[in-house]
Design brief:
single chain; mainly alpha; 5 helices; elongated
Length: 176
């Protein structure tokens, strides 16, 4: 149903949900209450329903250098696929352009491989420089184990020094 000029000028400020409620209130069934109309108790029912619900992201956003490398890699791979398709079609048509396109698609494959490796290396470098460790590796666990062992030994050595000092024997380790 199209809204006329008179209805448009009198449209409420609440949005499209209330406008539809106003339009549906002119329905032929007068005994059916439209959404958003006054219910008689002094309060209005809201006909507004959000179009989508905000949900937290499952994964964090990629860092900027990794994202730019990924976009570059996707573009290079797309161009390479187009070159390969054109080379194939030129070969089927027995065109003179077939050989140069095959060479271009081979070069594009090399560049696309470089682009994908660039994404991988950039991601690894970013993780290493900024200390993002998603799953502790076996080396990280071993280093933590060593640090814990060193702390325990330091505490044990400190405790033995305190016990010797408490005995009152000014540094004596043997009894007379």
């Amino acid at each position: 149903m199209a809204m006329g000029t008179a209805e448009r000028s009198g449209a409420p400020e609440g949005g499209a949900a209330e406008v539809t409620a106003a339009v549906t209130s002119n329905a032929s069934d007068r005994d059916i209450r439209a959404a958003g109309r006054d219910t008689g108790t002094g309060e209005r029912q809201s006909g507004y329903r959000p179009l989508w619900r905000e949900e937290p992201a499952r994964r964090r956003r990629m860092p900027d250098p990794v994202r730019t490398a990924a976009v570059r890699a996707v573009l290079v791979v797309a161009v390479t696929l187009i070159l390969a398709m054109v080379a194939f079609l030129c070969t089927l048509a027995e065109s003179w352009l077939a050989f140069p396109m095959v060479l271009a698609s081979v070069a594009g494959t090399v560049v696309a491989t470089w682009g994908v490796l660039d994404v991988w290396v950039t991601r690894q470098v970013w993780n290493q420089r900024h200390g993002v460790v998603s799953v502790p590796s076996s080396t990280a666990r071993a280093m933590r184990r060593e640090r814990r062992r060193a702390r325990r030994q330091a505490r044990a050595a400190e405790g033995s020094r305190e016990r010797i000092g408490r005995r009152g024997g000014a540094g004596q380790l043997s009894h007379p």
